[in-house]
Amino acid sequence: MKLAIATLLIGILAASPLLAAETRCGWLQNPTPGNWWLDDADGNWTIMSQGGGEGPPGMDLIPDISERDYVRTNGNYGHACACLSVETDDNESSITSILSFRQLALAKCENDGKLSPPQ
Known about the structure:
Elements: H1 2-15, E1 22-30, E2 36-40, E3 43-48, E4 71-74, E5 77-89, E6 94-104, H2 106-110
Antiparallel strand pairs: 1-2, 1-5, 2-3, 4-5, 5-6
């Protein structure tokens, strides 16, 4: 019985894609309503686009970023520096799930030579 259960579990795990959490740090941008992305050392990661729904699971973990170190660029919209633990779709350069969020001081991203300034 135990062998049958173990074999079944191995089969299920082998058939399902393994998702691994990655920590990505960089410029978290929210330039207009419903548009969110993260620019890190590896490129631009789409979190959500206007008209594309509610965003990935875990979007609710991102608090009001304007309450901390933040740059307003368009009314109530702008950018901050942050680290997120996420799952991604590399083919689409998108974030598919947010597992945790930590906002950083702007200086952390400003002084990171691997990051381009936010647009």
